[in-house]
Request: fold
Amino acid sequence: MSTAGEKVRPLADRVLVKPVTRESVTKTGIVLPDTAKEKPQQGLVLAVGPGKLLDNGQRVKPEVKVGDHVLFSKYSGTEIKIDDEELLILRESDVMGVVEE
Reply:
């Protein structure tokens, strides 16, 4: 069975990310409904495009790679659904950092 990262190949400087959802139950045991949850701002990189193409024809190598855990802008990217899985396609410039384990 193929994964979403194998089904979608991002172009240029785009990145395919699986958002990491936060816990839906607080430490005190209160269950949060979907309407009270914030949009995730962290995710796992599933696929990376070849990089941004400059005017002179050179390609800028992406700084993120598949498997990176990244932080991204709250309302960035385009939401897509593949095999009932919610994913984001965003520009590498919307990635604010890589979380080091």
Remarks:
- Residues 68 and 75 are 20 Å apart (CA to CA).
